[in-house]
Design brief:
Elements: H1 11-19, E1 33-38, H2 42-50, H3 69-85, E2 87-88, H4 91-95, E3 108-109, H5 111-124, E4 132-138, E5 144-152, E6 155-160, E7 163-168, E8 175-180, E9 188-192
Parallel strand pairs: 2-3
Antiparallel strand pairs: 1-9, 4-5, 4-8, 5-6, 6-7, 8-9
């Protein structure tokens, strides 16, 4: 679908593809728990002011994708291609400001910029915007980080510039803080982990 060149597929990826055909097991947590409406990140607000075409929203029906093997391979290709193509740089080094979200048109960016490009590429390829949600998390060090959540009939999966593989959200080790609403990309909702408390006890709250 995307033609980004050959990608090696390890045993872990093969196992995930096989698992896509299997029913969910009892106890699996497929979806994060949604909370109340919360403030949009200032980076998103400023990005939308400069790029309104990438932020068109308005009320719409939430749509999840059907996670077929073809869709899974497309996610892997996009995630790896963007991760390999964009070079990491802090906003301070890049723009001289603490926080700025932008599409990495010059080939450089930080985590939000990787997310924006992956989201745009998938939307341009025909994926429903309602299933592609920019998400703010706390990483394993307790630091702020952004990833792209893909909402599917098989659960929620994460595209991350810190990992070449696409993982189920429960496998990331992150503390999920907030993300875009499926019904409107300019509305953000807080997130609560539905996993056992031990899985998130070490992460600091935002």
């Amino acid at each position: 679908m995307f033609g980004f060149g050959g990608q090696g597929k390890g045993l872990a990826v093969v196992a995930i593809l096989i698992g896509l055909n299997a029913p969910a097991r009892a106890g699996d947590v497929l979806y994060a728990s949604l909370g109340d409406t919360t403030r949009s990140p200032i980076g998103w607000v400023e990005f939308c002011a400069e790029n309104p075409g990438d932020c068109r929203g308005g009320a719409s029906q939430p749509r999840d994708i059907v996670m077929s093997q073809t869709a899974w391979r497309d996610l892997l290709r996009v995630n790896r291609w963007v991760n390999e193509t964009v070079k990491p740089i802090t906003d301070m080094d890049h723009w001289g400001v603490i926080e700025k979200w932008s599409l990495p048109s010059d080939g450089y960016g930080d985590c939000e910029d990787y997310v924006l490009l992956k989201r745009k590429m998938l939307i341009d390829a025909g994926w429903p915007r309602e299933a592609l949600l920019i998400t703010v998390v706390r990483d394993k060090k307790g630091e702020g980080h952004a990833v792209l959540t893909v909402k599917s009939n098989k659960g929620e999966f994460v595209l991350d510039n810190q990992n070449e593989n696409v993982l189920a959200w429960t496998e990331t080790g992150y503390r999920f803080v907030k993300r875009q609403s499926q019904s409107d990309p300019n509305v953000w909702v807080s997130l609560g982990d539905s996993r056992p408390a031990v899985a998130t006890a070490s992460a600091r709250d935002r």
